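Give me the fold.
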Amino acid sequence: MKKKMLAGLLAAAMVMTALTGCGAKDSSTKPAAESTAGAAAGTEQSSDAQAAAEDNGEVVELEFWAWWSSDARKPYVEQMVQDFNDSQSKYHVTYVDIPWGDIFTKNIAQIAAGKPCDIMANSMEEVKFRAQEGQAEPLDAYLTDDVKNAFYEQYMDACTGDDGSVYALPLSVDTRVIYYNKAQFEEAGINADEIKTWADLEEAAHKLDVKDGDRYSRIGFMPTLGNGGVDTWLINANKKPCWFDPETGEPTVNSDVNKEAFAWVRSWIEYYGQSTYDEFSAAFSSGMTDPFASGAMSMLVQTSAYTSSLAQTAPDLDYGIMLLPEFKEGNGNTVNGGGFVLEIPKGAKCPEGSYEFIKFVTSYDTQDFLCSSLGDFSARNDFDENTEFFKKPHVAEIAEALEQTSTVITPNEIKGYQDVVNPLVEEGTLGIKSTDAALDNAQKAFEDFKASN
């Protein structure tokens, strides 16, 4: 009944939108100014829109919702919005920052009430779910091949609903790599280029260990510390999502590959000892110290955004970048990643205007401006050494991982499975259960969850 009422509200909102147009208001506008973000990104379509606006003097007011309110990010977001406003005269966008803890529920409530914002920043991982739930407008009527083909395929797949329509465009993405301490590598006589497989990684790590009595003052590596969980390594081993078959949604938790890979992950904790693991884990969790930045860890799995953190916490640290090694030789360097998208909430009053803003923000020039300013990575596949962003240290090396980044999109029919699987997998990570038993238990729990949903 609730779904029918929601559908009715959305349908009514769409009818009103069709009757009233884009909700433009009269306003005298100034000629478009030069974009500071290089937003000469104007296309024939936006030029036509500008000409029409100049003819009738109407400006469409649009709201862009996101959660970036910090001094480190908000000024650049506002600059981006201003650049769009200056690049044409038909639409005027206002940025509204809403706290992370409120924005998503508020977005759904506004859609249900028939009063959504016009552009929404949202999670990439749940685009398909929001499309199925009728929370986003399809972009197909406005998309052109040159726009769709400008992004890595896996990110466009994540932005595509089960019905084949595109519901969002990628705003920013992340990936994972291994950061390593160059001075410590040189001291131990290790060549990072020779670390090709998990076995190579393990051998190198133990050459980097420093033990004072019964305590490690430095460890070479720990797979589950930093921003690499068990799933990071199992995805690497499988070259795809590890807990379920992405084609069928069937649970694959206790597969042979997963059991071998999970045992390897747990072996590191057994090697260094639970107390060492707990000590280093607590250091990361507290946020007070960073064992890699301080030199207490020689290698660390982290996201592409970690370079910005190191610039603040360890500006003099000389570090390098490695792709995650292969599970076995020839297996590939697959890693998990995600990101954020821009989409049009269902019932937005002027979808064509909202899309013009989304197209502008995801364009080559604006993405270069955002990435260079914020340190985020773009899903665009045409970034190279000509961009300002790629001139920054380590960016080109990290970008190599984007091509092999797996965006783990949960099928709608098994949404929420992590709540039953993760606690049982954690029992294996902590040694409460054997890794095989933990995966077997998680497999059964996943199957029961799927059957009941």
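The CA atoms of residues 190 and 204 lie 7 Å apart.
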